[in-house]
Design a protein that fits this description.
Number of domains of chain A: 2
Order of helices and strands of chain A: HHEHEHHEHEEHEHEHEEHEH
Structural class of chain A: alpha/beta
CATH topology of the largest domain in chain A: Alpha/beta knot
CATH architecture of the largest domain in chain A: 3-Layer(aba) Sandwich
Number of strands of chain A: 10
Oligomer: homodimer
Strand order of the largest sheet of chain A: 7-6-5-9-8-10
Largest sheet of chain A: 6 strands, parallel
Distance between the termini of chain A: 55 Å
Number of helices of chain A: 11
């Protein structure tokens, strides 16, 4: 049976302050937990139903982690998780490590993306399109928010994120590279050819788009052409369309 | 002050059964409510703060609808809405009217898209890319779910939806048209050219994709090429990428 301390600990990890104090985060759902176990994250413990334990006993036994059998009801009681099917894990956060962009590589830059669902979706989309690095402004929502992890559908294990002051980062790393920004008034994405030397693709805040501080680093203002009447696209959707056009020959 | 009956009525409209009984639905947030007032939906009443009323007095006075001034606290008390900034409206549902697809037109077909956020996103994306009609299986989530309306960001006013048995619909309307289905194993989207004569673009359920009943009507199995390692894309994202490639010359 789950101890009160463990329940308290898991509930605390839903709050950013406590995630930062404990340097731990929650992963829910069998698909994501299995990806976590295969990744290089340090796993603190896994809670799962006896069904889960039986089904994945070989994976669990290979792994140096504490496993505790819990009931589905206990899992459900742990909170407002959407994908909490049969297990939940707690793992150690990684350090916020500097990411450089290699020659011919494109990285995403997020300027204050605030919604955890959007960040999770962007991580998943980046992983689909082979983008391995995301540079985030300090006000971009926390990578380890359970909603980010859930929406990323396991892609949080593969895509690397670095939180930093974007102006400072760009000052050192933008020169000589293209910095493509998604705007509502720019050159048509369909007419733009992403140079092979690589660079950055910048996506802005849900309400305000790319901020002034970041805008001065943009070398190419790009727009996703609109045929109909919707005022805008969601930032996760816009990221996917930008990356699809990047990868399309 | 809001009457208990009105509060009860609004809360009831969060549930599909009651929306169907009353043939009414909720629209929240000033942006969506303003689009609603400009649309051909019959609006039953609008609740708004005095700020909202002052700011949009000319629009409200042009409109034959009841307006009630409420406090922000009263609005917040009305439920779990995310975008409930300064107003909320209740409008009449439209009848489920048959939609034919014209020559050179593409319509979306949704085979059991269950998540309201996904349906709302798809409606918004359709509106962006100039798709005016969506044919939905009966098990696709309800168009008038408040989460669908909220996620569509006003596009629910422009995109038409028809719920029907897809097999029966396809039997009559698919012959002679392309029926493009999004699968994880098909021809590359980048190599496919959508014929000018128009047809259908079919998106499947979040977990199971396109069902067998619908699959037999597919003329072209199409895949969004993957560069990285994510297992799949969210259905809203996949719809956007399909439509972007449709519109890209």
């Amino acid at each position: 049976m789950l101890s009160k301390n463990r329940i308290k600990f898991i509930n605390a990890l839903k709050i950013k302050k406590f995630r930062q104090n404990y340097q731990s985060f929650i992963v829910e759902g069998s698909k994501s937990v299995l990806e976590l176990l295969r990744s290089d994250f340090e796993v603190e413990f896994v809670l799962g139903t006896s069904d889960f334990q039986q089904k994945y006993s070989s994976i669990l036994s290979q792994h140096q982690t504490t496993f505790e059998t819990v009931t589905l009801k206990e899992l459900e009681g742990l909170g407002s998780f959407q994908t909490n099917d049969s297990c939940l894990a707690v793992a150690r956060c990684k350090e916020n490590v500097f990411l450089a962009v290699e020659n011919k590589e494109y990285a995403l830059v997020l300027d204050d993306v605030r919604d955890p669902g959007n960040l999770g979706t962007i991580i998943r989309v980046a992983d689909w399109y082979g983008i391995e690095k995301i540079i985030c402004s300090p006000d971009t929502t926390d990578f380890y928010n359970p909603k980010v992890i859930a929406a990323s559908k396991g892609s949080f294990c593969r895509v690397k994120v670095f939180y930093t002051d974007l102006a400072e980062y760009m000052q050192h790393h933008a020169p000589g590279k293209v910095v493509v920004g998604a705007f509502l008034d720019g050159q048509s994405l369909y007419e733009y050819h992403f140079p092979v030397q690589g660079g950055f693709i910048v996506m802005g805040n849900e309400s305000n788009g790319i901020g002034e501080g970041m805008e001065r680093w943009i070398t190419n203002r790009i727009t996703i052409p609109r045929v109909g009447l919707a005022e805008s696209l969601n930032v996760g959707i816009a990221t996917a369309v930008m990356l699809d056009n990047l990868r399309r020959k």
